[in-house]
Structure prediction request, 382 residues.
Amino acid sequence: MVVAPWIGIGEPGSFGWRVFHERHPVMIERLCSAHPFGPDVRDGLSALLRESTEGDVAPLDDDAPDHQVWAEWAADQLGRPWAETSFLFAESYFFRKLLAVTGFFAPGPWRGVDPFTPMKRAELHNDATAETLKALDELPHLDGAERDAAVVQAAVWGNQADLAFQLSTDAGGGTSGLISGSPEEFWSLFGEPGAVHLVADNAAGELAADLVLVDRLLATGRAGHVVLHVKPGPYYVSDATPTDVLEVLNHLAGLPGEAGEIGARVQNALRAGDISVRSHPFFCAPKEFSEMPRDLRAEFESAAVTIFKGDLNYRRLVGDRHWPATRPFADAVSHFPGPVAALRVLKSEVAVGLDVDVVSSLDASDEPWRTTGAHALIHTSR
Ligand SMILES: O=P(O)(O)OC[C@H]1O[C@](O)(CO)[C@@H](O)[C@@H]1O
Prediction:
């Protein structure tokens, strides 16, 4: 098997380095303004920033239910300088540690409190999301093919609204367009109705768009059943948890027009058992999906199609490594046990599956195209 070097955080000025040195301090400041954390939590957050930018990887010092599994995932990184760890490990471990520091696992007022809720809620209720959800009123006026294309485009670009990313980039949120794939390619993956698995990414607007896609999968009979996978707990600021699924769904169902209709249909599908929501612990692992545990692999083996949303899932699916951008997507996901689609806005350095001409013209532009969030892709593999 060909293996490329993993993407790291140690190179000053690199994307991963900037996430730790520029984005994380801003995020922590926002968390501290959003919550009346006491000195212990504030000092703990500063210590975490210091450890992760200047220090060595220290063990977890909490006794959370996932402590053991995390101790195993982190075992071979302990004692190494953070700067020498992979971006995927470092960022994931950072978020796990952050949760412990905010008191999420400890007895007290912060137990079970998702520290990112204020940010996710603000996004769900902001003007841009309201406008996008209002635009769903156009859907009933479109013919089938147009409607298919519209819901896939919305699911792809919904990934642009990502709070962690917005904190780390100068991108103005442009949408230069799809640089690979198309909605038609996406839909061509579906045949007889079977179980379709959707590995969700962010809450708020992106999850709303994902639920619109789920509704379309069920309404058109492309899926007999949908399994929606979300994170078991707060992660990477805006990642969707089971609580977020209910919050977004209630919001949709309470809206007038098509958004409300879709919300009601999705609620009914949940009641009927046509949609299940799952949150396997591995979705928070600092690991690539090629290393997923047997029980999760078995779930995907039984899927007619699995859809991966977003940048982090893409990094974990193809391997967060310095691959040639022209490496065929099918090669990169050959470890995956079934047909797969990835819908992603490019927000970090990894890229595969691109045409050589596309890569040449992107490379010739002055733009750091891999990380601006202005480009998106739809990849499929059977
Ligand atoms: O929400 P998404 O699409 O997974 O994107 C998260 C991305 O944002 C970052 O956290 C920072 O840009 C990336 O590391 C990560 O891949």
About this structure: Residues 19, 91, 159, 162, 164-165, 168, 201-202, 236, 310-312, 315, 347-348 surround 6-O-phosphono-beta-D-fructofuranose (CB under 6 Å). The beta strands are 177-180, 194-199, 223-229, 275-278, 305-309, 340-345, 375-381. Residues 15-34 form the longest helix (20 residues).
